[in-house]
Amino acid sequence: MKDEIISYRQMCDAEKVQTLQRGMNYRLNANYSVILMSQRRNAPYKDSILQDGITIEYEGHDVPKTSSNLDPKKLDQPKVTMSGKLTQNGLFASAVEDYKGGKRTPEIVRAYEKIFSGVWSEKGFFKLIDYKYINADKRKVYRFFLEETEIDFSSSGITENKLRQRTRIIPSDIKKIVWERDNGRCVICGASDELHFDHDLPYSKGGASITPDNVRILCARHNLQKSDKIE
After folding, report:
1. Sign of CA dihedral 214, 39, 55, 27
2. Which residues are within 8 A (CB) of 196 and not within 5 positions of it... i.e. 6 or more apart?
3. Where are the domains of the chain?
4. What is the CATH architecture of 4-169?
5. d(Cα 145, Cα 131) in Å, to the nearest integer?
6. Tens of pLDDT, residues 101-144
7. Contact call for residues 22 and 87 (beta carbons, < 8 A)
8. Dist. CA 161–CA 174, nearest whole Å
């Protein structure tokens, strides 16, 4: 569920893997890819949420660090390996090229964000719609653009639900403030499990997500009760 607060272990369990070591995971699931992102100051890559509130700008990944390559940050981010195999950058970029060339629908990507140590947020599903290969800090890096979408699951796979209204992404700095303000607990019952970041007033009804005043922590039960009342 979008904006669910989870641990690293819960994230791995959700994707049915023992560990998630890479930030970019093309087709980790048979139906979608997975990215791990962070907007913290010490994050290794420059990920951000654009002003429209529904688009992620996600930086591609560096070459692995080796004894002969002591500083990957000085090297261009690669599309292929030395053996000619596509890197994760290459797989994501090729998916964009095929989409823009009319060969396929956009790749669906599930995004998880590290808020701070031990606390992750499931950000929902996005369409991989574009990328750029740009000059940055004296090297070339990939910047991928992912637009929020709503997904329905069925026995045959996943489909995009274009009728369900999208919600703005709650910025990471707001989530950190709210987590600390609400002491990591549901503001209604004090529960510390199955938590979600919740818009007090939904964005679709005029609520904002760029200030902590309209965001709070709710447990799954009270989040569902609120949704039922709104509908």
Report:
1. negative
2. 1, 3, 4, 5, 217, 218, 219, 220, 223
3. 4-169, 170-231
4. Roll (2.30)
5. 6
6. 999 999 999 999 998 888 899 999 999 999 999 999 899 999 99
7. no
8. 28
